[in-house]
Design brief:
Number of strands of chain A: 28
Number of helices of chain B: 5
CATH superfamily of the largest domain in chain A: Aldehyde oxidase/xanthine dehydrogenase, molybdopterin binding domain
CATH superfamily of the largest domain in chain B: [2Fe-2S]-binding domain
Oligomer: heterodimer
Radius of gyration of chain B: 17 Å
Largest interface: A-B, 57 and 54 residues
Largest sheet of chain B: 5 strands, mixed
Order of helices and strands of chain B: EEHEEEHHHH
CATH class of the largest domain in chain B: Mainly Alpha
Radius of gyration of chain A: 27 Å
Shape of chain A: globular
Strand content of chain A: 15-25%
Number of strands of chain B: 5
Helix content of chain B: 25-40%
Structural class of chain A: alpha+beta
CATH architecture of the largest domain in chain A: 2-Layer Sandwich
Distance between the termini of chain B: 58 Å
Chain lengths: ~775, ~170
């Protein structure tokens, strides 16, 4: 039972009012006098060396103020991945280079007085390319004789540049070979996943200017202001203290903005032109010049005893990071470490090659390697259960990780290095399965298919998934609070609300701890001049890590408040509490003082600013758990799959704001639905994007949606503020396998490639045996 | 560069702006400070730039500003009346229908047009009306619920004032 007055309540977003009234809140919602428009010349070739580049005509165009090529900028190898220093991603990227490695790679950049002039200017840059053989096929990238994509000598942290291997991972716990010898049933299957794009509604946009002190100000749609500041300073060779990053409201990120993407080039143009510069990706550019989800080929092998006990699992992955290794080993590490330990077997082996190809660059994307892994694992689990004649729900109940278990694979496989073991201190997964099964009508629908004749067949399928809550031992955050004379508090956090409601959740944590209303918290987030450090919004870390920092800071400030009140109320601190904007004695006679009166007294009588800050990190990453159940209808004449209902139940620990938590689930499920059925950035044989627009890259609209049922199964996580874990990523993992398993239940074919296209379903149906028909014909 | 004069009404106020003949309504509105009109694709596919033109929902990235001559434009900035939020805006906040907020303005503008012509829409009609607005955050469930809730609040408030009107007659 919730005995909090702020935490656990469905309160309005603290930034909501300006968002529903069209307030100027986003990066591009400002006009700066003299602002120039930046434009990047993208490579038309998948792999080429720039032999000659002549910018004379572009520079001569009236209105052009800066033209930059690789000759004009410092050559500093770096990664664009917005990760904690030292980043585990290879340093294989340059602000501008004499070589281009994918269609859309930067060739040059200009800044001009209008967008039209900037567009004309980039087209006036004359480039002579030596076109090199390109490798686009993930399976050809490591082959002998394949073109070497990173043949430059100054890149670092590449696993094997001669073979285009950005990263390699091999981890084993227990003994997989022995485990498989104990198995009565072994299933080994290959899966293929596609290049999915974030398609956040606000494309990447950055505006830079020099402030009156000559410091570089970067106003940007970023999830990682602090990493961005550090990276830009390094690339532009400025002291960190000369860079100021501001994160306004962000129009969605989903990992796509966990990347230093435009800030470096926009900053370089600003320094060159000595004028403010804006660069904004068009929607088309966003599709192939930003980031995407790593395509993978996965080979999943799992063995179980006749009673359904899983005895060994092995996952072998070949993934491509595209032309640059942003998030390459860390995303793929998650494919093993966050996926395989869902099952309790002590024998696990994970091996992965991450290869370069001359394709658009992959990066962080909600789920971070897990959607691929769970698609493979949960489909294989469904196959084993079918093979053994065990209901998949029952199979999961017997095998999934439990309260008190220790996940030892995570100890082997951390953020690009050794990790820390995970101890399961809260687990609502069994209840998640029960609740979602009930919502979909599992028992009834598994027992008898409601429509088993005619061209349209229905079926139900399920999947269980988990994720993390922050990166253990790496993610950390800080928060600062100061009291105002009206009893309100400024809360300053480096955390980066990208739309999910972090500012609201963090304000709720502060308000609850301080015993004040939510309207008494004024939050500023993600401004490197004002707010203290935070790694940023990724890895499902904000509520648990940044929230942990806020809670600590609020507890320290609360102690100061009580100390000051103790004098005024002439009562010992231990007898005081605060709630409803006042401090009061918990013992009779009841005496109290309003928070506002106390603040006024502290400031003008005591001459003391009530304020404090705190830092926080965890050495463990408690997993949120999720059960996803799908009901589908398959048209056996067209192969069309219609999802009728997706029921999702999630254990996020405590939901600080259940309404916002549900919103995270529904959004993640919808992205997972697109991943399952419609979304793929397609490249032609030359590496050019075929469908970089919303007509040809299909994301679900309001009209296309199935019924969504969302259930929160709340638990109490000892490591989280007020028992919270996380929620934003885990629900994206389930739809693809749950839908694939439901298709099998409906029509008896297995689809192991995403997205599940009608033609693939039809092909499998034709290759399969004729469909069973009901014994009694329907007249 | 050639320019021309554009006369139109925006959110109830008469405006006269100097524009380039080829300028898009989206760009001119944003230039004039209507930042609630968002640039999401510039090809009429996402709906973030939707405004009402004489009561009809239009993607302002697909319309020349010059075509708005003499027309009445309503942007998201004009939905709240006299500093009071529209029932749709209240409902979007109460139902958790706003996440990043980038698509929200367009959605609310479209929903306002829907409720103006159909105060009692079915869920399917709401989904149809919102289908031109891509949202990557919410999965549409809460926005649809918010529009239905706002419709119900609006109908209830009309019922309350209706008897007075009857009496006046």
């Amino acid at each position: 039972m919730n005995n909090h007055s702020i935490v656990g309540h469905n309160l309005r977003k603290v930034d909501g009012a300006k968002l529903v009234t069209g307030g100027a809140a986003f990066t591009d919602d400002i006009q700066i006098p003299g602002m120039l428009y930046g434009k990047i010349l993208p490579s038309p070739h998948a792999h080429a060396r720039i032999r000659r580049i002549d910018t004379t005509r572009a520079r001569a165009l009236p209105g052009v103020h800066a033209v930059l090529t690789y000759r004009d900028v410092p050559r500093v190898p770096h990664t664009t991945a917005g990760q904690a220093w030292p980043e585990p991603s290879p340093y294989d990227t340059y602000l501008l280079d004499c070589k281009v490695r994918f269609v859309g790679d930067r060739v040059a950049a200009v800044a001009a007085e209008t967008r039209t002039i900037a567009e004309r200017a980039v087209n006036l840059i004359e480039v002579e390319y030596e076109v090199l053989p390109a490798v686009l096929d993930i399976e050809q990238a490591m082959a002998p004789g394949a073109p070497v994509i990173h043949d430059e000598e100054d890149s670092t942290k590449i696993y094997d540049r001669e073979r285009n291997i950005a990263g390699y991972i091999l981890r084993e716990i227990g003994n997989v070979d022995e485990g498989f010898r104990e198995a009565d049933c072994i299933i080994e299957r290959e899966f293929r996943t596609q290049r999915q794009q974030h398609a956040m509604l606000e494309p990447h946009v950055t505006i830079c200017w020099l402030d009156p002190d000559g410091r570089l100000v970067i106003r940007s749609s970023t999830q990682v202001p602090y990493h961005c500041r550090r990276q830009v300073a390094m690339i532009l060779q400025l002291p960190v203290s000369r860079v100021h990053v501001i994160k306004p409201r962000i129009g969605g990120g989903f990992g796509g903005k966990q990347e230093m993407l435009l800030e470096d080039i926009c900053g370089a143009l600003t320094l060159a032109a000595r004028r403010p510069v804006k660069i904004e990706y068009t929607r088309e550019e966003e599709f192939y010049m930003a980031r995407s989800r790593h395509p993978q080929i996965l080979r999943m092998k799992m063995g179980a005893k006749r009673d359904g006990t899983v005895v060994a699992s092995q996952l072998t992955v070949l993934a491509t990071t595209g032309a640059y290794g942003s998030h390459s080993t860390t995303v793929q590490g998650n494919t093993g470490s966050k996926v395989m330990p869902l099952y309790r077997t002590s024998n696990m082996r994970f091996e992965c090659h991450v290869v370069y190809t001359n394709a658009p660059v992959a990066g962080a994307f909600r789920g971070y390697g897990c959607p691929q892994g769970f698609f493979a694992q949960e489909t294989v689990v469904d196959e084993i259960a079918a093979e053994l004649g065990i209901d998949p729900l029952e199979f999961h109940h017997r095998n999934v990780i439990r309260l008190g278990d220790i996940d030892r694979l995570s100890a082997q496989l951390g953020e690009g290095r050794e990790g820390l073991p995970r101890v399961i201190r809260s687990c609502g997964l069994p209840q998640c399965m029960e609740r979602a099964a009930e919502a979909i009508g599992w028992n009834r629908k598994r027992a008898a298919r409601p429509r088993n004749s005619g061209p349209k067949r229905r079926g139900v399928g399920m999947a269980c998934t988990m994720q993390g809550s922050g990166i253990a031992g790496i993610d950390w955050a800080s928060a600062f609070l100061k009291m105002n004379e009206d009893g309100s508090f400024y809360l300053q956090v480096g955390a980066s609300d990208v739309g999910g409601g972090a500012d609201t959740v963090l304000s709720q944590i502060a308000a609850e701890t301080l015993g004040v209303g939510l309207d008494k918290i004024v939050i500023t987030s993600g401004d490197t001049d004002i707010t203290p450090f935070d790694v940023g919004a990724y890895a499902s870390s904000t509520t648990i890590i940044s929230g942990g920092a806020v809670k600590k800071a609020a507890e320290k400030v609360r102690a100061q408040v009580l100390q000051a009140a103790s004098k005024l109320l002439e009562a010992p601190v231990e007898s005081l509490d605060c709630a409803n904007n006042e401090i009061f004695t918990t013992t009779e006679p009841r005496r109290s003082i309003a928070m506002a009166d106390l603040a006024l007294h502290a400031m003008y009588k005591e001459k003391f600013q009530i304020m404090d800050g705190a830092s926080h990190f965890n050495t463990d990453s408690p997993p949120p758990f999720c059960a996803t159940f799908a009901e589908v209808e398959v048209d056996t004449e067209t192969g069309q799959v219609q999802v009728l209902h997706l029921a999702t139940a999630v254990d996020p620990g405590t939901a600080i704001n259940p309404m916002l938590a549900e919103g995270q689930v529904e959004g993640a499920v919808t992205q997972g639905l697109g991943y399952a059925l419609t979304e793929e950035l397609v490249l032609d044989s030359a590496g050019r994007p075929v469908n970089p627009n919303f007509l040809d890259y299909k994301i679900f609209s309001a009209k296309d949606m199935p019924k969504l049922t969302t259930t929160l199964v709340q638990t109490d996580e000892p490591l989280g503020p007020f028992g919270a874990k996380s929620i934003s990523e885990v629900p994206i993992n389930g739809p693809a396998p749950a839908i694939a398993n439901a298709i099998f239940h409906a029509v008896g074919v297995r689809i192991r490639k995403l997205p599940i296209r009608p033609e693939d379903v039809l092909r499998e149906l034709r290759a399969a045996k004729p469909l069973p028909v009901e014994e009694v014909a329907v007249c | 560069m050639k320019t021309m004069q554009l006369h139109l009404t925006v959110n109830g106020k008469a405006r006269s702006w100097t524009i380039a003949p080829g300028a898009l309504l989206l760009d001119v509105l944003r230039r004039e400070g209507y930042f609630g009109v968002k640039r999401g694709c510039e090809t009429g596919e996402c709906g973030a730039c939707a405004v009402l033109v004489d009561g009809r929902v239009i993607n302002s990235c697909l319309m020349f500003a010059a075509q708005a001559e003499g027309r009445e434009i309503v942007t998201i900035e004009g939905i709240a009346q006299d500093g009071r939020l529209d029932p749709l805006q209240e409902a979007f906040l109460d139902q958790g229908a706003v996440q990043c907020g980038f698509c929200t303005g367009g959605m609310i503008v479209s929903a306002r047009a829907l409720l103006d012509r159909n105060p009692d829409p079915t869920e399917d009609q709401v989904r149809e009306a919102l289908s031109g607005h891509l949202c990557r955050c919410t999965g549409y469930k809460k926005p649809v619920e918010a529009v239905l809730a706002a419709a119900s609040v609006t109908r209830a408030s009309r019922l309350r004032v209706a008897p007075k009107k009857e009496a006046a007659r």
